[in-house]
Amino acid sequence: MTRYSAVSTDADADAPPSPTSSPSAASDLPLSQKLIKVIGNVCFSFFVLAVLVVTVIAVTYQPPDPWLSSSAALTTSLSATLQNSTFRPDDSVLPTGEDLVPLNSSLIPVNSSSSPSASSVPDLVDSSSTTASEEAAAASESCDPDKPVNCSDPRVLNAVKAFNQKAFTRRSIIFLSYDIPMPGSKPGECDVAWRFRNRKEKSWRRYRDYRRFRLAPGDNCTIEVSWVGKFRSGTNAAKSRPRTQSPASSTPVKVLDSEINDTIPTVGSESEFKRGKYLYYTRGGDYCKSMNQFIWSFLCGLGEAQFLNRTFVVDLSICLSGAYNPWYGKDEEGKDFRFYFDFEHLKESASIVEEEEFLRDWRRWDKKSKSGNKISVRKVPTYKVTPMQLKKDKSTVLWRQFDGPEPENYWYRVCEGRAAKYIQRPWQAIWKSKRLMNIVTQIAGKMEWDYDAVHVVRGWKAQNKQVWPNLDADTSPDALVDKMTKLIPPWRNLYIATNEPFYNYFDKLRSHYKVHLLDDYKEMWGANSEWYNETMELNGGKPVPFDGYMRVAVDTEVLYRAKTRVETFNNLTRDCKDGINTC
């Protein structure tokens, strides 16, 4: 066996001593080496910490849903599905501007009725209006614990504000302003109304709530909230704009949302009309197609008008595809654009004119021009004439006509090809109707904005087993109970957004959750509802049915506001959203 002797060499003699060679070795190190060693240890510690942080982010991060993240992502996603210039039949709802565009306070219209200032409401109380001196003065006058609470006492409003901040701020509610408290139905009760915004809705629209509070004197002459009613329980604080009614009428006064102004703007005088530049689309093959295709095409036209710096002519009469009403089965013409979309916001976001008003003025001023100074019109018979070719056209009216066969007569064909690089669809201009969003707010408010939701797609897709072979079984009552109990804690408020027509289909889930379905809230569009009165006024006094698209729109928006969201094609079934081999 080879032996190695411990022979001292010159190299060993010149080498620095080992840290273990003597107790004083550490103290013999030069100061520069100590500094380098400390810096190295600190850098290594930061490196380890960075690795841990990156690891945690990699494990927990979920990429944003392209359907909710931005309008650019939505445009890209939809463009990828339109290679054959056609939409698949569908009964879903596209996200609109309030779901896509982040709130930008610099864009809030100061004088808009959709965002009125505090000064425009005479009895509005700003959050900073009650000073400490006022509260102290009120406290000194009414510090008797046996004295009934006075709702006009500034301490009442401060107690309500403090309670709301503690109870609702974590539920995505941002409080904007308060009205003056009103007496409740009993001594010690006050009804308080406020305006708020939901953080999950990327718009500046305001909503109202009014609740009944039971208050009692607390320690040190304070007032405390001992009980609060549910959503919109404080009826004495509710104020709405009454509909005009003849004094002899025996029917009850009906109310409207005072913050909705979707009146039709007028063009003006002859000179104003002739100074304007208009882009007019006649009806094409998109008419009576799915609402998703309608939005995609409508925003193409609006985008072209903005590119050409022209006013877009909007036809408020739209056709609802029969796909949204399978029990009816027919397309429904004559639907008002304002039933589904926020016309007031559209007027504020883009230069538009209503079609009937535009055509009336066009005929009138063109007929009166006896001097030969007719309104100049250029007809554009095909989508193949690109927006870039029309950029320098000086005609008063550019009249795009869509008379060819499908899909040549689809509006969105204008924005395909090279035009896609120039035309930006203004997604921020399209919001869902404030009337529908009021229903969404009421449903979420009834659940105190503290709920989870599941989207259960069934209907015709569940019946088509060639394209979705597992969907029916994966969304059966037993399968839903098995999967949902693993995803959502028991006895939570569970909202089910679904196209399943049978109300009792989800009864087995009621043994595990507080189940809520859209049909549980029928009173919100019933004959005595705010929505019913407002849409009937838009419809010339005729009642408007709450159709399938409205149901899907409300379902979708309630789903977006849930704390936990379970999707059919991500969580419940093995099938792909668009069928076999499309994942």
From TrEMBL:
Q: Where is the DUF7075 domain?
A: 271-568
List cellular component terms (GO): Golgi apparatus
Top-level taxon: Eukaryota
* Transmembrane feature ranges: 38-61
Q: What is this protein called?
A: Calcium ion-binding protein
Which residues are in the DUF7074 domain?
A: 146-233
Transmembrane is among the record's keywords:
yes
Q: What keywords are assigned to this protein?
A: Membrane, Transmembrane, Transmembrane helix
Positions the record marks as coiled coil are none
